[in-house]
Write a structure and sequence with these properties.
By secondary structure, this protein is of the alpha/beta class. The chain contains 17 helices and 15 strands. The strands form two sheets. Strands 9-8-7-10-11-14-13-12 form an eight-stranded mixed β-sheet. Strands 3-2-1-4-5-6-15 form a seven-stranded parallel β-sheet, with helices on both faces. Helix 2 packs parallel to helix 15, helix 8 runs antiparallel to helix 15 and helix 15 packs across helix 16. The termini are far apart. The structure holds 1,4-dihydronicotinamide adenine dinucleotide.
């Protein structure tokens, strides 16, 4: 009879992070990070656990904490903590004060490199441990929020070391934002409400990377899609992609679902809510909890209730009900039961963080403090690795094509020649 065995959450995730697996195999031999201490902040769960393990396989001593105190999986932390060369500065049940104090402990270990989420470690290092900051050799940041903070630091000339903006790479935008946010937000929206998008009208507010994914995937599920924008080019792109485009004032009365992804605040207002259909469902996939302010809903509501976990229902004076998911916080990360981005998507983002780390030790590493883009060849290498893991082959340029692309002279070639 088959035996039942216990598994750690990381065992399952490892099956869906093939790039990290390939990097682990490649770097286990060379150990390019040997002799260096890496400080890592991230939401500590199975996917980031595999990331930490891969850094360690590449030779690094890894000290890790959570990018916030409440998103930590204790099973992952205890498994990582038992591995030689990995040390936890977080546990499952910490309050904010304990979490901050453990971050101080971590930073006092004087890491060589910082791989950050939300610039949590880098900003605290500069603010609270300024004497340690100059001894750090470099860092990398994976989130939009973190990049905004780092840009402010770079602008003020206070950054003490070079940091790679992993968040800004094409691979991050095209996969994490479009597909990760798109798919996980719709999954969580459907799961939290137990409703079906097919045949409904979904209004996507903001047609940037996240908005494109949301609108495309909602249309793929059979929803009618409306996009609202403030940028004429993105609005035109949405139109040409097959979505209806209109102002939010017009869309307000048409949508069954409204999903914000603008990075902006106050994009759904009390005036919009007054126009909405009975039963409208609002969710935010963009910035913190500011895109759909709860105060705007409270302004027009007579009563507020919680009909289901993760849903706040605002009843207007005429009896219409408007529902806000996850208190307007990121629906794919904070709705009940949400698991964030799929493992296959985080695989590319974490692989980019590891390649950034390896690159910071290489000859092409930036020498002066500041915020830097990931070199394009590194971004492409991750794309190639992803294709390889999916068993997909692509073509390469012939010598003739390379010359053609590199030459500015008029092409007078003989296309009938067999040598071409
Ligand atoms: P983006 O800059 O590519 O797109 C934002 C779009 O919103 C732009 O086209 C902009 O013109 C539009 N916009 C701004 N204000 C607007 C308004 N009032 N009405 C309509 N459109 C408006 O940014 P991206 O990459 O799509 O990210 C959007 C937000 O999503 C950011 O806050 C980012 O941090 C967040 N994000 C969330 C993730 C998640 O897991 N939920 C993952 C990645 C990003």
């Amino acid at each position: 009879m088959a035996q039942q065995t216990e598994q750690n959450p990381m065992d399952w995730t490892s099956e869906y992070t093939p790039i990290l697996h390939a990097l682990g195999q490649r770097f286990e031999e060379e150990e390019p990070l040997d002799g260096y201490t890496f400080a890592v902040a991230t939401h500590m769960e199975a996917k980031s656990g595999v990331f930490v393990k891969t850094l360690n396989r590449a030779g690094a001593r890894v000290l890790f904490t959570g990018s916030e105190p409440h998103s930590t999986d204790p099973a992952v932390v205890s498994q990582l903590d038992s591995i030689q060369g990995i040390e936890a500065f977080i546990s499952g049940n910490m309050d904010k004060t304990e979490w901050e104090s453990r971050i101080d402990d971590l930073l006092q270990e004087e890491p060589d490199f910082i791989l950050d989420d939300g610039a949590e470690l880098i900003s605290r290092l500069h603010a609270d441990h300024p004497s340690i900051a100059p001894s750090v050799s470099g860092g990398a940041e994976q989130t939009t929020t973190g990049i905004t903070r780092l840009e402010a630091m770079a602008e003020e000339n206070v950054l003490e070391f070079p940091v790679y903006a992993v968040n800004n790479t094409p691979m991050k935008n095209y996969f994490d934002n479009i597909h990760g946010t798109g798919e996980s937000s719709l999954t969580n929206l459907a799961q939290t409400t137990n409703t079906i998008l097919t045949g409904k009208t979904v209004v996507v507010i903001g047609y940037g990377y996240c908005g494109r994914g949301l609108a495309r995937k909602a249309a793929g599920l059979g929803a009618r899609t409306i996009v609202t924008e403030i940028d004429p080019r993105n609005a035109l792109e949405a139109l040409m992609d097959g979505h209806q485009v209109m102002s939010m004032a017009e869309a307000a009365s048409k949508g069954d679902y409204f999903i914000t992804a603008t990075g902006n605040r106050g994009v759904i207002t009390a005036d919009h809510i007054q126009e909405m259909k009975d039963g409208a469902i609002l969710a935010n996939a963009g910035h913190l909890d500011v895109e759909i302010p709860r105060e705007e809903l409270s302004k027009v509501a007579d009563s507020i209730s919680t009909p289901r976990d993760g849903i706040t229902q605002y009843t207007l004076s005429d009896g219409r009900k408007v529902n806000l998911l996850a208190d307007g916080k990121l629906v794919n990360l904070t709705a009940p039961g949400s698991k964030g981005h799929p493992a296959e998507v985080m695989d590319t983002t974490f692989a980019m963080m590891i390649m950034a780390a390896v690159n910071l030790l290489g000859e092409s590493s930036p020498e002066t403090p500041g915020l830097y883009g990931i070199p394009d060849d590194v971004d492409r290498e991750i794309a190639s690795m992803k294709l390889e893991t999916m068993d997909v082959a692509i073509d390469s340029l012939t010598t003739d094509q390379t010359q053609f692309r590199e030459s500015w002279e008029p092409d007078r070639g003989d296309y009938s020649s067999p040598e071409r």
